[in-house]
Please model this.
Amino acid sequence: MIITSLSLSLYWLDLTFAGVMTPPCPVLRALWIAELHFRCEGAQRPLAAVEVAAAGNLFKVRQFARRALQNSTAAAASPRSGQIDAMILLLCGAAAVAVYAVCCFTVLRLPKCQSRARLDGKTVVVTGSNTGIGKTTALDLAKRGARVILACRDQKRAEAAVSDIRRESGSSEVVYMHLDLASLQSVRSFAETFLKTEPRLDILINNAGLVVEGTTKDGMGMIFGVNHLGHFLLTLLLLDRLKESGPSRVVNVASKAYEVGKIDFDCLSTHKKLAEGKSSLSLFFRYSHSKLCNVLFTHELAKRLQGTNVTCYSLHPGPIKTDISRHSNLLWKMILFPILTLFFVDPVSGAQTTIHCALQEGIEPHSGRYFEKCAVKEVKAHGRDDAVAKKLWELSERLCSLA
Ligand SMILES: NC(=O)c1ccc[n+]([C@@H]2O[C@H](COP(=O)([O-])OP(=O)(O)OC[C@H]3O[C@@H](n4cnc5c(N)ncnc54)[C@H](OP(=O)(O)O)[C@@H]3O)[C@@H](O)[C@H]2O)c1
Model:
């Protein structure tokens, strides 16, 4: 009965989404079809249906599903259906556990940064470092002897992070400086204070990020303003200090989500945000667009830094269990909870690619490139579009009143 209900629910979804929603995993799909076939044919040859599914014949899949719907009531009454249900459930469970175990040892395993570099006498700024990936990055760099500036917006949370990092690293060279990326004025004040008080800057890590509705103090869409524009201005204001301290690096924490991002310049010029819409999905897309901005900004920055001793990199940290979805509504939190629990990894693993980009020796020839799992990854064509990167740079300059 359970399998029948599941099958029919999936069939319903299948109809609803015009054939898009068959179970995505081939094993699950095969089991589903075996069950549907059983319903249709009275369990004569359920394995034949597995073969059909393995061959990916979705047309036949739908035919089976339709007939299954018609015959389901009669078939469910059969005594053999209970046994098959149990068997299929067991197989589904075993397949799910096996797939999960394989994922844990392959796609979900993130490599560790191999560099043993020490950073004594060097200064690092990490934005959004009071929690999540930024905090574990800051801790690692403090353990390597760097003077670490936690550039954060909330004094209480930042000071708590400073004392945690000082305690765990044994370093007293960890300080908080106020930075609210949702205000260009705050970015300017941060840069002014920093340039007055800190004689060098060896690594700037633009890590802070959010997924939330709203508008910055300057009237920009919050996601665009914080994830891209604030970091853009910060980097440009600190660039001379980076050059004086070279060889130095800028690391932009982007996301694989950039792959589905696009830059709608009309929307940006008219509404000062990357896209319109109020749904959670549109929020996610705005986040993706902002992460594309990070990738394009890095691409253009590398070009403009040619001939200097400053290099820059963008990266995807991996799927990391942090508080980034803290602003989601309850429904999304409930949907995300099992996914985060099962498929997302700890922030220490999530900091490895950032640390790699910040200090791995020999990656300078890859300036401007995008990294994943501590290695260079070919960026999709729209993430290295010279014309779009230049246009975004020029628009960002105008929005920051730099041009
Ligand atoms: N977690 C993932 O799976 C994942 C995947 C791909 C990319 N990323 C990227 O990784 C980066 C770090 O994210 P995370 O997962 O560590 O998220 P997180 O735990 O939510 O940390 C985000 C940090 O950004 C700070 N922040 C937000 N708005 C700010 C503002 N206006 N000014 C200054 N700081 C601000 C937050 O400060 P408050 O505590 O004050 O809010 C927090 O310290 C982000 O750029 C994110 O896009 C994460």
Notes: The two ends are 67 Å apart (CA to CA). The chain has two domains: 2-105, 123-399.
